[in-house]
Amino acid sequence: MTVLLGVAFTLLTLGSCWGHQPDRLDQEPELAFQPSKYGSLWPLPQKVQISEVSFKLSSSSFRITDAKESAAGPSCSLLQQAYRRYFEYIFGDVKTQNVNKGSRKGPAELLELQVWITSPDSECDGYPTVSSDESYELSVDQPVSVLKAPKVWGALHGLETFSQLVYEDEYGAKSINATSVSDFPRFAHRGILLDSSRHFLPIKVILSNLETMAMHKFNVFHWHIVDDPSFPYLSRTFPDLSRKGAYHPYTHVYTPTDVKMVIEFARLRGIRVVSEFDTPGHTQSWGKGQPDLLTPCYAGSKPSGTFGPVNPILNSTYTFMRQFFKEVSTVFPDAYVHLGGDEVDFTCWKSNPDIQKFMEQQGFGQDYRKLESFYIQKLLDIVTATNKGYIIWQEVFDNGVKLKPDTVVHVWISSSANSEMSNVTASGYTTILSAPWYLDYISTGQDWQKYYKVEPLSFNGTEKQKNLVIGGEACLWGEYVDATNLTPRLWPRASAVAERLWSAKEVTDITDAYSRLSVHRCRLVQRGVPAQPLSPSFCPHEYKGV
Amino acid sequence: MTVLLGFAFTLLTLGSCWGHQPDRLDQEPELAFQPSKYGSLWPLPQKVQISEVSFKLSSSSFRITDAKESGAGPSCSLLQQAYRRYFEYMFGDVKTQKLNKGLRTGPAELLELQVWITSPDSECDGYPTVSSDESYELSVDQPVSVLKAPKVWGALHGLETFSQLVYEDEYGAKSINATSVSDFPRFAHRGILLDSSRHFLPIKVILSNLETMAMHKFNVFHWHIVDDPSFPYLSRTFPDLSRKGAYHPYTHVYTPTDVKMVIEFARLRGIRVVSEFDTPGHTQSWGKGQPDLLTPCYAGSKPSGTFGPVNPILNSTYTFMRQFFKEVSTVFPDAYVHLGGDEVDFTCWKSNPDIQKFMEQQGFGQDYRKLESFYIQKLLDIVTATNKGYIIWQEVFDNGVKLKPDTLIHVWKGNQEKYQSEMANITSAGYQTLLSSPWYLNRISYGQDWPGYYKADPQDFKGTEKQKNLVIGGEACLWGEYVDATNLTPRLWPRASAVAERLWSAKEVTDITDAYSRLSVHRCRLVQRGVPAQPLSPSFCPHEYKGV
Predict the structure, then answer these.
(1) What confidence score (pLDDT) does residue A31 get?
(2) Residue A299 domain-assigned?
(3) Helix/strand/coil percentages in chain B, nearest 5
(4) Is position A545 within any domain?
(5) Number of folded domains in chain A?
(6) Can you tell me whether residue A417 is helix, strand or coil?
(7) Would you call B413 and A22 a contact, using CB atoms and an 8 Å cutoff?
(8) Are the Cβ atoms of A198 and B484 closer than 8 angstroms?
(9) Catalytic residues (chain A) (predicted)?
């Protein structure tokens, strides 16, 4: 038997209040708020049973503790920090309360949540990987609740779930119902892409976004760190890259310390940091600090003064890449690096007589895709030598570059996404999907529903092919996004993607999702995240950060 | 001769960096940043001449003072507060500097800006009106610059212009060029509509938006304060309206003190607060605290339990409206109140047998627009009795309601062709009008939509000179379905900035490339002043937004 949770979060939505909309496009039926039997859980766990029995929690007595049997004790600072974080989410900024505990009577009280890491190696000091065990089991009961997880990664997710089960009763008392949860992710790779090249994103923005990602069980921060407009990554080996290629060499760069901080902040939340250094296209900013790296374009028989993609015919290019990616492989601990490879414009290569000569020598004819493949294959060898796996945008696969079998192909072109997913997996490659989740595209109305309804495995293919889909990423490209608008533009739209990638395939009830998401959005606001509204409504605690 | 201003704000925009865009719609040509000869002035003054001669400003010596001859002295707190505000905009949070002033030599220094109110009545303690004189003249010269304005309203605008002329040289020194400006608005009514009913907007959000409006010389805050979803206005006469109709009776209401604060905060910035109490439609939330106000809808022969627009056939309705608008007329000092009147759905009226009977008695036949007119005419009489003018949405005009000659008609419907013919019809009938149709900023799309807002011109319709003169301005509207405190500011600015320039600057100011350059730097200035105005294009600001 289940009960309605979230009394304190009741929303009001009127059917007739969408006024003053000259030519409103009603793509989506209007959703009415009805409390979900799953309260405000987001993303929905794989299995959850909420009973009618409820307990109170008091900030002066409630404790999150390590279970005696746990493989991770007080020395696991990842967990200790998480306990403090979730205590604060649950109780807010608690003023010292002089509660006379002895004299309290009344409803049953939940005193303790024990966290029990069940496998001998908790991975407390490690980094999360694509094959990390993220599962957990949560039993909320009196007087002690237990959160069991093989690794710390599952424990982090379980703490988030526990915090989402806490609600305020009608008198404002923190309450939780007896509940049992058994949970694990549907997909292993659940990511958010941010673009720090088109607009520089201050470290504070990146960190607070990681915080919000953890509230959604996202586990990959895809850091599209450099691109044409600017090169904010401060390379120790090639400091001129950011000195000359960043918007500003001091105020608009990520120092090694910054990068370390991002990686550790993410690790403490179970999030991988996958860096992208996109070549051979999207590299205008690289050329400013690394002479001869880019191809000189020609106008007729003379260099025009502009530059195209990375110059693939010079040995110096590969010497540079070898050193550069050696650095990248030590700076970023993740087992994967994203190598880009998208949207290579052949115009400049075609204009350059040295390139033309090289094409002839190599017998490439007029097929510049062969030249692109030539470059990429050399690059893949370089990166392979650093013991990293790689992710590449779909064009690299489309253009027939020879790939290692464990390459991850990232599908982003929306017009052909389904057939692309079929082709990539039929060739035996693992893949991640972003095509339907380009959140930089905005429109009036509730577009989260569109993101929510995507089914990543809806393409034609065998069971084996489907198993090659390891997840997806919501992308927020940076043309029109910076510190001023990133958070409300991303959240709660990306929340829809979070549930699609975590929860069971069958979780598709849009009305139930709307109800949970509405309350979840208010919880984000209460935690200080300016997540924008879904519809006319209110939160008990409106955003205060303006 | 003019020079390039705004060194400290240089932007970088690459033509080829719009990557990874599967089906990007290139509605607009890409705009390249080239420093404007008008620096970062926004909106562009009517006349401006910037010379090459530049002066330095030091936070320890520069002063804004009242001219001896000024009609407003130290007792005019509106101006004194504005001096402090603009000093802070120009110099930021200045740490105490111990400059050994005696030792300084070098470039010429500007020591003083004198503000001279030239008319005997400065209007310092008054409220701005639709006919306020907002003009000013600014002469930036050494050692003393002079800002002359007939009234305080022009002085406020002149201070903003002065602050926009200040830039940092390559060493970070505050600098300004010798400049002369002569300025006045093209349109008298330049507004922003915010909707505090679909989402409650905390007072802080409203105040900071007024602050940003002042940076754009906007002079009307159209407060769409109540609507179907909630009734946050706390009425002294009818406290049940918000007690029962607000999202929450304490945390989601505007108390009389709140409203007063908004009005005074706006007044100090030369901004009128025009409240809208929209009837007879858009009133679901009114019905909760005022029984019998709304029409009971019928399903067949029985009341369905739902309610429609205000019930126009009961005397109690008009008794209520008389008392309610009497209160409104005293709470809001502005000479106008916006009465709404849009989107009246006749379904419920049609279902109600009492209404049907009334229609027969009045000889309205089946024309429910006549019933609407019946209601509106009675309402207009009520409001007229409070000595207020009124603004109404275009439907009231379209439906043939008899209007007073000084009624202001607010055009919001339709595409360009439709709103232009509406403007022509309204003005040929002799009414004054306001335009909002092209400026519904709640509608969002991918890319740079500001050029579309920038290009719309309120006088661009077929009509005589006399008709054109009946257009008194326009408003950018940010309806609240998808907007609350979390996203209001970046969604509104700098998109509304485009509307600000269209309504203030001369008709001929239409160079989109020049606008792009000035607006890019202006947007960075907003960010530096703490306003999270979103970016126009891939670019950077020397000081990125720090408020996250």
Answers:
(1) 84
(2) yes
(3) 35, 20, 50
(4) no
(5) 2
(6) helix
(7) yes
(8) no
(9) 343
Say whether both A312 and A397 belong to one domain: yes
Residue that finishes a domain, picked among A149, A183, A217: A183
Is A319 found in the same domain as A214?
A: yes
Set A137, A264, A327, A343: catalytic member? A343
Give residue-wise pLDDT tens across range B9-48.
334 333 334 445 544 344 455 788 889 999 999 999 999 9
Which residues of chain A have a CB within 8 Å of the CB of B545?
Answer: 202, 482-484
Instruction: Indicate which CATH number applies to the domain containing A179.
Output: 3.30.379.10
Q: What is the model's pLDDT at position A16?
A: 39
Q: What is the pLDDT of residue B7?
A: 37
Active-site annotation holds for B52 = no
Give the E-state strand segments of A122-229 in sequence order.
136-140, 144-149, 167-168, 174-183, 189-195, 220-224
**Residues B209-261: pLDDT tens digits?**
999 999 999 999 999 999 999 999 999 999 999 999 999 999 999 999 999 99
Range of the domain at A199: 189-527
One domain for residues A175 and A235 = no
Beta strands at A430-433 and B144-149: parallel, antiparallel or unpaired? unpaired
Mean pLDDT (whole number) for A387-414:
93
Q: Do A536 and B481 touch (CB under 8 A)?
A: yes
* Residue A440 Cα, gap to closest chain B Cα (Å): 8
Q: Are residues A149 and A205 in the same domain?
A: no
Assembly ipTM? 0.89
**A546: closest CA of chain B, how far (Å):** 6
Q: Is the residue at A141 inside a domain?
A: yes
Please tell me the predicted confidence (pLDDT) of residue B170.
87
Looking at chain B, which residue has its C-alpha nearest residue A538?
A: B199
Determine, for residues A20 and B486 on separate chains, whether the beta-carbon distance falls below 8 Å: no
Q: What is the pLDDT of residue A396?
A: 95
* SS3 state at B273: strand
CATH number at residue A228: 3.20.20.80
Greater pLDDT, A200 or B5: A200
Task: For residue A273, tell me if it sits in a domain.
Answer: yes
3-state secondary structure of A58: coil
Picking from A153, A183, A213, the residue at the C-terminal end of a domain is A183
Chain A residues in contact with B22 by the CB 8 A cut-off are: 412-415, 435, 438
- Cis? peptide before A143, omega within 30° of 0: yes
Which pLDDT score, from 0 to 100, does residue A474 have?
A: 98
Q: Are residues A145 and A250 in the same domain?
A: no
Alpha-carbon distances of B252 from A63, B196, B277, rounded to whole Å: 34, 10, 17
Number of cross-chain residue pairs from A and B with Cβ atoms under 8 Å apart: 211
d(CA A412, CA B397): 50
